[in-house]
Design a protein that fits this description.
5-stranded antiparallel β-sheet
Amino acid sequence: MARLRATLCLVLLLGFLVACGGGKSTPLPPVTVVSGGSSVSPSSIATASASPATVASPIPGSGYLEIDQAPVLGLNVIDPNRGAAYARTGDSLYRSDEQGRWTKIGPWDPAWSLLVDPTNPDVLYSGGHPGCAIGGDAVAFQKSTDGGVTWQTMLSGQNVRPLIVDPTNPKVIFGERCTLSISVDGGKDWTDVPLTPNFDVSAMSLAGNELYLVVTSEGGTSRVAAVNVADPSHPQLGNDLLKFWGGGIVAASADRIIVGEPHGVDRSDDGGAHWSFSRSGLEPVTVSVNALVEPIPNSELSGQFGIYSLAIDPTNSERIFAGTIRGLYLSLDNGTTWARVSSIAAVPVRSMAFAQQGALLYVTTDNGVVGLAHP
């Protein structure tokens, strides 16, 4: 992959607070602007020259983005027509302004999650929970309404991992604390929704009034369930749409549901009534059988398989990217056949986000974030 030159002057955001009761606001260190040379928009990421004090230049020979000589571990894109809104390193969080310049806001722990309101980038949520099966220390749920300068602890949200803000009603937030959890008042109060016993939420995607969940049992069986959230105060749980072995990921739009799982990719064009399956080209990163029907061959038992993330090109819905246990794959025919994207290393790809009207794809791997220009 051609070496990326990234110019990112960035803004650090979050001081994760221990639950301090009653939604008390706790200020973080003052916002400081990183000094140095001029900044450029992320749209210039592939060709921009570096200015040491302000630039996220690539780690030599790798193409991974870094800020102040620290690898970028995550990015938040809230509008695919623009650039990234927030970026995270191992100990700092940064925010972009309207001109694409980045400023450091505050400290950051990579174990924290970050969700941004797509209708108001000043509104941020952070939370998580210990392992569903093993338990552990409780995790506080936090909200900021000023871009991360101050944070409030929302006691009802303890152990909620926030995942989706409804873009048509940003007071509605969908998250999980092993089961589905919904807030209809901007994160102040949360209601847990009972699902199939002994199945935990591992992924979700919202398409209109339908929320699609991947729920997984401790034994490894997964199901795709649809929840109608036309009235999020009274969600309606529908029938299971798909069953498979192992963990999975779901991406949904008005006319499609796409599921990535250890055996391959499933696609439905009619709301989950019928499914088509493909493994063509994904053989190196998927198991050869449906483990719910027949045993996995001994030769594959010691291997690692799976699809961790999905992204649909906003300019051409036939182009679908799949982030896998070993690298990035691309389908040009609506998920029928797949080919490896050789410019991304054969490492786990955890998430992806399109930016700049599809001209840039941010790929988050276990080694850091790579920006692919014109992917």
